[in-house]
Amino acid sequence: MASIAARELGINFSAVTSIADKLLDIESSISAEMEASVLIGKQLNLTEARRLALAGDLEGMMTNLVGQLGSINEFERLNVIQRQALASAMGVSVEQLQKMYNQQQELNNSSGKFSEIASN
């Protein structure tokens, strides 16, 4: 399931396990979370993602992380330093984070189109 969720976000399973490893480096993860929160002006809370990673629920961890991303428009307004801080807090590279945002946007658009078709 985690592998499927990873593919839906445009990343591979090894990236998901890497994210979990980075989240479970508690001291560094909390530091990166706090730095990103200050820089982007939005309170991140990765505690649940860390708990899910520790429990081995990688799919739940990814769902929790994606739920905190916000919209692609918010991401595009971030400067380079803010993007780097957010990526670091999430345990990914800026490139991977961009892919996750793009894939999430595509999924949202597809879901919206499906809902529109279904309601007609």
Please describe what this structure looks like.
It contains eight helices and no strands. It has one domain. It is 79% helix and 0% strand. It is globular, with a radius of gyration of 14 Å.
Write the layout of secondary structure elements.
Blueprint: H1 2-8, H2 13-23, H3 26-40, H4 47-55, H5 58-67, H6 72-77, H7 80-90, H8 94-119
Please summarize what this structure is.
The chain has 120 residues and is an all-alpha fold. The protein has helices at residues 2-8, 13-23, 26-40, 47-55, 58-67, 72-77, 80-90, 94-119.
What is the mean predicted local confidence, pLDDT? 84
Task: Give the ordered list of helices and strands.
Answer: HHHHHHHH
Q: What gap, in angstroms, lies between the N and C termini?
A: 32 Å
Q: Helical stretch count?
A: 8
Give a count of the beta strands, DSSP E runs of length 2 or more. Answer: 0
Considering the chains and any ligands shown, give keywords for the structure.
mainly alpha, 0% strand, 8 helices
